[in-house]
Specification:
The protein is mainly alpha-helical and 114 residues long. The protein has a domain at 71-114. The chain is built from five helices and two strands; from the N terminus they run E-E-H-H-H-H-H. It has a two-stranded antiparallel ribbon with strand order 1-2. The longest helix has 16 residues, at 97-112. It is extended, with a radius of gyration of 19 Å.
Length: 114
Amino acid sequence: KKNNDNSSSQGGERIPPATIDAVCKYSTKEFMSKHNHLFDEPYERAKKLGRAADLSQLAPGKKIALSPHPQTFDANGLAFFHKKWTETMKPLGYDDYNAFAVTIRERNRKRFKF
């Protein structure tokens, strides 16, 4: 079945262009940064919902970065990262992050036609 109204389709269900526009608007780093307080969750609520395993994630503060912020890892951190990538992502066919990102971007471009 062909979409003639410029909407995307997920499992045969039409997604109106206005919905796609809203998702694109509300998922930008700029929007999320402006509404940063909405990403803070009180400890008691997180505990009640079973999301309190890592308390550092519950601390109020900026969670959205608008500018580049390079991460640096020591030798142990890099070794851990490479080990986990080899165990988890290589079996899926992704040699590195760029290969993964290209695949996801292409899938999204086809799915959402942008």
